[in-house]
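Tutorial handout. Part one gives the primary structure; part two gives the three-dimensional structure as tokens.
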Amino acid sequence: MGAAVRRGAAPWRTPGRAFGRSPRPAGLLGLPALGRWSLLGRWSLLGRWSLFGLLGLLGLLGPQGCSTVDPGQDFQIADVVFDEGYYYCEVEPVLFRNSCGSGSGSDPARGCHFNVSSFRLTDYTPRVADGCRDGVPGTAPPEAARANYQSAQSMMRRDPDLAPLYYRPTDVTAHPRRIFAADSPDAQIIRDWAERYSSQ
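Part two.
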């Protein structure tokens, strides 16, 4: 009777083409399956190895892997930049004229702002203010002057009554000595600086 035909086989049909099906069943996301190593199986294998690698790395890092930094007592992010030219020509001369860096004879040794780290001033010569004309520095400020500006700006606020650069030397709050009176021309220069700023 001829060759034996497997049960259910239809020699005139291409395998898998019956009823509109493709020869291979679809795998993950409609991609063809690849037998034992389907796309899902490959990702699973890679995922397992990645997970083991990540756990091993975390085990090596241990508790020292993450840390935090203490920003200090009066941590603030400046939302404004105070006028640099006005600082060099007006504010810095007030600080040096009143011995804020070196201190006066009655101040404790090494207790003033050439030595205090929270508001450090650096002495330098010639001073930028010596070359100022109409409130504009005549020369580029040296590194020491720029460091002084950064220190002073960190102590400044848009409301001068809240600015340590104003209320500490006027002895409104704790300070070793009163540097100038709150109604003095020197205090007014610092108050005026509070109005000279630009937004970042």
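Part three, for discussion. The first helix runs from residue 39 to 61. The mean pLDDT is 71.
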